[in-house]
Amino acid sequence: MESNPISPLVHIRAHLNETSHLPLYQRLQRALRSAIEHHLLKPEDALPAERQLAADLAISRITVRKAIDGLVGEGVLVRRPGSGNFINTRIEKNFAKLTSFSEDMRARGRTPRSVWLKRSEGTVTPDEAMRLRLSPGAAVYRFHRMRYADDEPMCLEYATIVASCLPSLEAVDTSMYDALERAGNRPVRALQRLSALLLNAEQAMLLQAREGDAGLAVERLGFLRDGRAVEFCRSYFRGDMYDFVAELNAT
After folding, report:
1. Cβ-contact 98, 53 below 8 angstroms
2. Which of 76, 114, 222, 240 is most buried, taking the most CB atoms under 10 A from its CB?
3. CA separation for the pair 197, 189 (Å, rounded)
């Protein structure tokens, strides 16, 4: 890893040495994420053994293990017993963490982009009014788009946003959550429902899959800090590329 001046190890060391009040294991996590985002570590690449990484970075093996455990929990890395830790090729979405598609892809070294299917302004349907707790006739924006990672189709997304939460229909470019954050209306919590389905002909065509292939459907209802609903989103994912994970405990 040392021979290349822009090797992952050089990049990670530079980030570890940056001034920060974060604990060392969190700084290592950020450094590893940065190396992935800059494509210095790519899908299916193996990390050095934990003992070697600790020696190369002059930090404790316990710190390295704690950092890697966190990234495994997020789905950024995958641990293969007897083989080591690898950059995950499948996308693992933490069902308990409210992040955008773009944020998830960039954290895994993938380049997100969108293809618009439809952008429109209108009034709520009865179903949207019930879910978003809006009065009949309330204005909403609808965003229908294909989501890609490195030009690979990942997700078909149909989002409805309360119009008062965005300055205009054109405010959304790459990331809807970025636009909502700029407007001071990014969701801080959400209710999500996951279900399995078989892709219909239209979904399969858009996702470059076959009709009847396994897919995942996710409904998300996002809320502001004051309890108001801001978004209702239905998304359809290719089942061969996406996993949803959640941490459970007994308390």
Report:
1. no
2. 222
3. 25
Query: How far apart, in whole angstroms, are the C-alpha atoms of residue 40 and residue 54?
Result: 19
Dist. CA 212–CA 192, nearest whole Å: 24
User: Is residue 29 within 8 Å of 69, Cβ to Cβ?
Assistant: no
65: CB partners within 8 A, 6+ apart: 50
Question: pTM of the predicted model, to two decimals?
Answer: 0.68
For 184: left if phi > 0, alpha if psi spans -120 to 50, otherwise beta; the answer is: left
Residues 32-90 pLDDT 10s: 988 887 778 877 788 989 999 999 999 999 999 999 998 888 778 888 888 889 887 77
Structure tokens at 84: 């080591």
What's the pLDDT tens digit per position in 97-119? 788 888 888 877 778 889 999 99
Domains of the chain: 8-87 (1.10.10.10), 91-245 (3.40.1410.10)
Is the separation of the CB atoms in 191 and 197 below 8 Å?
no
